[in-house]
Amino acid sequence: MENKNKTINIEEEEFSEGGSSDGQYNLGCCYENGLGTTKDEGKAFQWYLKSAEGGNLKGQFKLGTFYFSGIGIIKDEEKAIQYYMKSAEGGHLNGQFFLGCCYHYGIGTIENEEKAFQWYLKSAEGGSQLG
């Protein structure tokens, strides 16, 4: 077990500054799910944030989810929709679907059925089984 934690720490150093946004996203997943390390939602949030800042669509979507649910951070529906929007505009299918939900139900924004429909449609046309 000690060896696994040491490996995670080495990876953290490699990805912490200017590293791979995919690697940063993967470290977020490790911390979120306790894979090879102790589960830590706060650290997961920080790695997803670094990933999202690097343009990673999956990281942006995860941040939306963390803000929406208050995982590792204080719940903030307005920030959730901002990160869902970034991932959706980049083509992330789940981001498009969840953005549609936000507009549909007025989560973090004013209800807008037309925008909800547009994002649901975009998600479905992209092949999402959710949209």
UniProtKB/TrEMBL annotation:
Q: Where is this region: Disordered?
A: 1-21
Checking Pfam families in the record gives: Sel1
**Which InterPro entries does the record cross-reference, listed alphabetically?**
Mitotic_Regulator, Sel1-like, TPR-like_helical_dom_sf
Known Gene3D superfamilies for this protein?
A: Tetratricopeptide repeat domain (1.25.40.10)
- What domain of life? Eukaryota
Which N-terminal residues, if any, form the signal peptide? Answer: none
> What is the name of this protein?
HCP-like protein
Species source reads Diversispora epigaea
The major lineage groups are: Eukaryota, Fungi, Fungi incertae sedis, Mucoromycota, Glomeromycotina
